[in-house]
Amino acid sequence: MTDAQNPSQETAVAPVKPAMRDALIAAAFQLFLDRGYEQTTIDDIVSLAGVGRRSFFRYFPSKEDVVFPDHEKCLADMTDFLQASEDGDDPVARVCDAARLVLRMYAENPTFSVQRYRLTKKVPGLRTYELSVVWRYERTLAEYLRARFSARRDGTLRADVIAAAVVAAHNHALRAWLRADGQGDAAAEMDRALEYVTSAWTSKQAPSGAAEEQDDVVIVITKRSTPMWRVVRDVEAGLGQD
Amino acid sequence: MTDAQNPSQETAVAPVKPAMRDALIAAAFQLFLDRGYEQTTIDDIVSLAGVGRRSFFRYFPSKEDVVFPDHEKCLADMTDFLQASEDGDDPVARVCDAARLVLRMYAENPTFSVQRYRLTKKVPGLRTYELSVVWRYERTLAEYLRARFSARRDGTLRADVIAAAVVAAHNHALRAWLRADGQGDAAAEMDRALEYVTSAWTSKQAPSGAAEEQDDVVIVITKRSTPMWRVVRDVEAGLGQD
């Protein structure tokens, strides 16, 4: 049945019929891999999937969108996850956890993710599309951080830079996993990459001259000209020995 | 004269005739501002500039490229600048200086830069184009850092994250200046933004327990369980007092 034959019924059915969406994705990827992305038309896809052209556009605004079918949902999940954040949550840890949602989406279907990675590398238009998706993730993280850092004079700068660093670390680990054909422990690699970002900023919360407490590490930042007695006092304060 | 009338002569003349390129840019922006980007065709642009269609494509691959006429040269300048780096140069400071080349390009022509900023905000296609340009800058910085950090186990991660953070800080300061209609001290704002990035990483060069020297700041990272005599020794070493 195509939507052209019975559009009203299909409109009503579509939301509870993800199978058609999945069939379109499967048909699209079969054709992209067999004959190439540029050589595949939307008509080819709907023909193989056995549906009408309008069904395609009900699920996907363009041919590019069928390549990245899960990003809209993942962006919505990320927004929900950040909105559920509480004031006590560490904001940088929270955006790292939000970024992990993207990895999880890729890791749920390694074969598909690796196929898409190879396809995207070959088609400049898909690479551009992916950049705009990455940008939307980055803005989602940055908006959350801007709200959390709103009391700081440098809040928006801090938010933008940390969001970019988190996205870069995430993509570094994700691409390593994709290049390894989806083999290996993606989550562990991701932890390592995100830890690099969090460690860069958790040490910089303290203003110059102050000591900051952490789980088991104390960091003292001091001017070279500071007298030693004062450095020792700051270190003692940091170690909780004063 | 149009290239259709005398293509061979114009091909020979083009490299020493930047006036035609400038005329095309000026005509394009006049039309973009008057009637809108989408409503302006390449035919409109060449007609107003008084040149032939092929002249346009000699200078610009597409209508989008005429909006960002200087990025190719700026990318080439950035690559040259990074290649001229010496082993003694601090790699993070070098990529910050490389990013400043982009600001300088914008600041050389504030009116044009502000016009383009407003245009880009309104046209999604230009925003996407800009994202791909930003990505090329980021990759240029990251490739340089990867080479500089090649001896480190986490070199590529570090390179990617720092490049992204530098680009985010740069764009934060650049956008603030553009939003302020090109008023204010863009270079000072840029220094402040990039300083935020460099300060995040210059403190993390040292492994836990070690002291690191900087111009006038000493940072000591120590475990909470470290005896005070050892902390003092490390601080003294950092201050050059041992």
TrEMBL record, chains A, B:
<dbReference type="InterPro" id="IPR023772">
    <property type="entry name" value="DNA-bd_HTH_TetR-type_CS"/>
</dbReference>
<dbReference type="InterPro" id="IPR050109">
    <property type="entry name" value="HTH-type_TetR-like_transc_reg"/>
</dbReference>
<dbReference type="InterPro" id="IPR009057">
    <property type="entry name" value="Homeodomain-like_sf"/>
</dbReference>
<keyword id="KW-0238">DNA-binding</keyword>
<protein>
    <submittedName>
        <fullName>TetR family transcriptional regulator</fullName>
    </submittedName>
</protein>
<dbReference type="Pfam" id="PF17754">
    <property type="entry name" value="TetR_C_14"/>
</dbReference>
<dbReference type="Pfam" id="PF00440">
    <property type="entry name" value="TetR_N"/>
</dbReference>
<dbReference type="InterPro" id="IPR001647">
    <property type="entry name" value="HTH_TetR"/>
</dbReference>
<dbReference type="GO" id="GO:0003700">
    <property type="term" value="F:DNA-binding transcription factor activity"/>
</dbReference>
<dbReference type="InterPro" id="IPR041347">
    <property type="entry name" value="MftR_C"/>
</dbReference>
<feature type="DNA-binding region" description="H-T-H motif">
    <location>
        <begin position="41"/>
        <end position="60"/>
    </location>
</feature>
<dbReference type="GO" id="GO:0000976">
    <property type="term" value="F:transcription cis-regulatory region binding"/>
</dbReference>
<feature type="domain" description="HTH tetR-type">
    <location>
        <begin position="18"/>
        <end position="78"/>
    </location>
</feature>
